[in-house]
Each structure stands twice: as structure tokens, then as C-alpha cells.
Prior knowledge:
Elements (H helix, E strand, L loop, with lengths): L1 E4 L14 H9 L3 E5 L10 H6 L3 E3 L9 E3 L17 E4 L7 H10 L2 E4 L14 H18 L21 E5 L3 H12 L3 E6 L2 H11 L5 E4 L2 H9 L3 E4 L14 H5 L6 E4 L20 E4 L2 E4 L9 H30 L1 H5 L1 E4 L2 E2 L2 H7 L6 H9 L1
Parallel strand pairs: 1-2, 1-4, 2-3, 4-5, 5-6, 7-8, 7-10, 8-9, 10-11, 11-13
Antiparallel strand pairs: 6-14, 12-13, 14-15
Helix pairs in contact: 1-9, 4-5
Amino acid sequence: MIIGVPKEVKEGECRVGLVPRGVRRLIREGSRVWVERGAGAAAGFADAEYEQAGAEVVAGEKVWEADVIVKVKEPQPAEWTYLRRGQLLLSYLHLAAAPELARELMRAGVVAIGYETVETDGGELPLLAPMSEVAGRLAVQIGASLLQTDRGGKGILLSGLAGVPCGRVVVVGCGVVGRSAAGAARSIGAEVVALDIAIEKLRMLAERMGDSMVKTIIADEESIGEAVAEADVVIGAVLVPGARAPRVITRRMVEAMQAGSVIIDVSIDQGGCSETSRPTSLLQPTYEFAGVIHYCVPNIPSLVARTSSCALTAAIMPYVSRIASSGWRAATQEDRSLARGVNICKGRITHRRVAEELGLPYVDLEKARESDEN
């Protein structure tokens, strides 16, 4: 089996699908690995390192001839023509917010696994978690920077000073992103308010950080509105795996915030959790609405591309290794977590939430496999 690692072409994306350590393991296990020239350069991995790991460094379109494509971000329009029927694609897809991409993947006849929808029986998202941790921590760092006067912010130091109150960070959604953000905000001395609809998540956060370190509130329209109005930084971290993020922060709530406040919408990959959010890029990351600075970059972890690439490789390797050794059909039959990650199988949508969000027919993966084999 040949595994291909293309160079990412999404604007501002510096991560790479596999770092040399992962490549070395796959080759040791009997696979061939093609890495597009320069694929790891922006993350600090030279072509020579991949060659030393045993990879073949190839130019441009050649890498897309591989049996399995391992990417970070979803294929961009310029890459769509390279997709071919029966090819396996592994990447973050977020198809609920990308109907055009979903239809293109269906047309191409690929088998597409979305890292963000690989889900354990316990509801954990092992391939999304490392990037969520990175994004949560970076969101606080970014928010603190945007509060600076020279960035158009309120001029508030989140940590405060002796005799001067600290800033307030409001975290909406207490999954991995939210917990990471809350921890990072509290570590620098900010006041932290966390909201979620699930009491179990709030309890977990309070037990981890201590009741005195974070104020936890059950999320509803009223409580979110009150918390957002008093926030210096709001971090949107709402996630429904496979579905669009619910827009729990309304336009009216944003208009009630003080000018120079900041919203970091980490949910933007899935459409955003604020009615005033729209995707931005790492090259042009912010805009203002009602005097509130919005940061809605879909690939925040690219800011620390080397760390993120290493973390991603570590997370995906057990799955990529299993696929390389036994093929995607056997791998998804043996591993229910991986099976849940299959969004599209040769023209059919095999993830129920994705199908519902896009208004397209859903086909059970087992039936799709049987139909393909017959």
C-alpha cells in the first residue's frame, strides 16, 4: 500500500499530515510512503528528514496517485481534480459546514474519513482532541493579545495587577477546547466563567480546576447572554460531532458587549457558535462587529505547526497503521471508532449527522461496503 502526504495548500496552513517519525513506522511495517516535496518545511521538517525515514519525496501531482492520502485540512478546490474513485482520504473534513466539498467527494467516489468524527463508544474524539487542546490554549493567548490597545482592544491585562482587577474570560462549551481554554486562562490569573448544557462536563471542569478557580453555569439563553455581556474575552467552544455548531451566541448578545471585547470562535470549523461569526484566515484573522473584535480562524493550531503536526501524527498513527496493514474495509469492521469516522463511501454519505445537516440520503456503512463489494 502506498500512503501519500501532500503539502497543505489551505491559506496559512503550515502543518503536515505525518512527521518523519510516523513515516518511519509505516515503512518499517511494510508500506511505501510518498511525501510531496516541501510538505513538512513550514512545520520544521526538511525533505531530507523524510528521505532518511525511508519516504520517497515526490513532486506535485504524483503524491495524489497514492492509495491513501493523509492530510491535515480538507481538500481545497485546487486539489479536487486529483481525487479518484476508491482512494482513501484521511483528514479533518467538517462537511456539515462544507456542502460543496461533500458533493465533490461523493462525485469523486473516494472513501473519506473525517478525523473529527472518529468517536469511541464513550463519546470521546481521539483524533480531534489534540488539536482541540492546542486551540483552547492558543485561544486564550490570542484573546489576551487582541485586548491590547494597539490591536483595538479594551486595553486590559487578563492577569490584572495588585490593586487592579483581572480580566474575565467566558468559555461557552466545556469539551476539550473549553477545558483547555479555561485552564490556560486561569493559569495566567484571569477570572473564568464556563457554561455548558451538560452538568457532567461542568462538574468535571470544577473538580479538575477547583470550585474557587472557575465559575460554572448551566447554559441557556439567559445565562449565556448575561455572561457574554460581562466578558472581556469570549471563547466559543461548542461542538456536536458531525453537525453544524448551534449558534448559541446571538447578535443581540454581541451588541450588548463592551467595545474592544473579543470573541474567539473556535467552533468556526463547524459553522461557528455565534450569529456574528464568519470564517477568517491566519493572514486576515479578525474583523469587528458592533465594536467587538472577532477572531474566527478555522485552523488555529497551524500557529504552532510543529507541535500540532507531532501531536496529530501521534494520535492518528494507530489508525493509519491498521489501515495500511489490513485495508480500510477490515480496519473499519474491526474498529467501531474508525467506522464512525467514515463520512463518505464511494458516493454515499455514511455519517448520519452529516447527511442530516446536508439534507442528503444516509446509507449505513455496512450496506455501503456490501454494495461496493458486490
